[in-house]
Amino acid sequence: MSLVIEGLSKQYTKSIQALKHISLTVSDGESIGIVGESGSGKSTLARILLGLEPYKEGSVTYKGKLIVPKNRSSLRAYRKSVQMIFQDSTSTLNPKLPIWKSLLEPLDNYKEFSPSFLEQGLTKLEKAEKLLEIVGLDKEMFSRYPVELSGGQKQRVSIARAISLEPSLLVCDEPTASLDMTIQVQILQLLKELQRKTNMTILFISHDIRAVAYLCERMIVLKEGLMVDEFKMADIYHSDRHPYTKALIKAASID
Question: Per-residue DSSP letters for 115-135?
């Protein structure tokens, strides 16, 4: 298994427990959707998986190694393999930097690494152009600033940044929530194509059960910090689905 979560709990205060004994295994190359309404614990789980949030109870193991949030040396190697796409692409791009500089920040942080899909000996600008082409953007866009890009274009830049380190696990936290429907479909298609080409594992966190159904092979349903349902997408309409899952399906009008 690529990722193993066992008995993971996260409590902020005596009255606020964000996660309650979550256990989950994810195989290499698998796409898993994590669904739930606001306050279900989705984003807390994402931050823990990125090493951004500490936890005291349970464990997170990636490729056989225990992930300890405060261990800087182990986190550096882990964060190269695990990248994230956030909901708000605007906040992930420095408004004072041209796109190419923001795009290459991950590679600048791991100078010893060169992704297999980039030729050796490329200049920084050539690397930026190639990354933009991979996510379907005009290579001439590298000199623009974030304010000059649409929401969909900025999210594509964020995806290009995330895949620049050739991660084996990509965590997507509501990556299409702020985009209009047409652009949402384009981003989901792009993620699906990138996964097909690279075999990376995708953890897709969303309140949008339709998006998860399109992209993912398996779905996890969270409610108030508890994992109340887990199933393959082929079994989404099975009679033993949890009542909360059935309510989400009905609300999404996909039944």
Answer: -TTS-TT--HHHHHHHHHHHT
Tokens 């936290």 found at: 173
| Structure tokens that stand for 178 in this block | 């702020």
Provide the percentage of residues in the chain whose pLDDT is more than 90: 47
Q: Is residue 25 helix, strand or coil?
A: strand
Burial 210-236 (b: 16+ CB within 10 A, else e): ebbbbbbebbbbbbebbbbbbbeeeeb
Could you identify the residue written with the tokens 């994810």?
Answer: 26
Question: Residue 34 phi/psi, 5° resolution?
Answer: -115, 115
Q: Of how many residues is the chain composed?
A: 255
Residue 57 CB partners (closer than 8 Å, separation 6+)? 7, 8, 9, 10, 11
pTM assigned to the model: 0.89
Neighbours of 116 (CB within 10 A): 7
Please answer whether residues 32 and 202 qualify as being in contact, where contact means their C-beta atoms are separated by less than 8 angstroms. yes
DSSP 46-77: HHHHTTSS--SEEEEEETTEE--TT-HHHHHH
Instruction: Please name the fold of domain 3-251.
Output: Rossmann fold (3.40.50)
Q: Which residues of the chain have pLDDT under 70?
A: 1, 70-71, 254-255
> How do the domains of the chain map onto residue ranges?
3-251
Sheet holding 31-35, edge to edge: 82-85, 169-173, 201-206, 31-35, 218-223, 226-232
